[in-house]
Design a protein that fits this description.
The protein contains two helices and five strands, in the order αββββαβ. With about 90 residues, the protein is α+β, with helices and mostly antiparallel strands. The chain has one domain. A five-stranded antiparallel β-sheet has the order 4-3-2-1-5, covered by helices on one side.
């Protein structure tokens, strides 16, 4: 049986992803690190840390406030290690 674009099994692959919100970008030499959040509604808020545009850390947080607090803590750690706001 072949799937069609209207089949439930394929619909998820064609859905539009939730928009992300970039919180900050830090730079250290030629490297860049970003923090982004994605609101999943009742599913919580995803926090993503990217290095050079590649996700290296992701966490599902219970609320925007929790995600923002974790992002702020990560930023403070990076800045203490010499990363600068880009």
């Amino acid at each position: 049986m072949n799937a069609t674009p209207n089949d439930a099994s394929t619909r998820r692959w064609h859905s539009t992803p939730e928009p992300t919100e970039r919180l900050w970008t830090l730079r250290k030499g030629p490297r860049f690190r970003d923090a982004e959040i994605r609101d999943l509604g009742s599913g919580g808020v995803e926090l993503h840390m990217l290095d050079g545009g590649v996700v290296f850390y992701s966490r599902l947080c219970s609320s925007r406030a929790v995600a923002m607090a974790e992002a702020a803590a990560c930023r403070a750690t990076y800045e203490a290690d010499g990363w600068l706001l880009a």
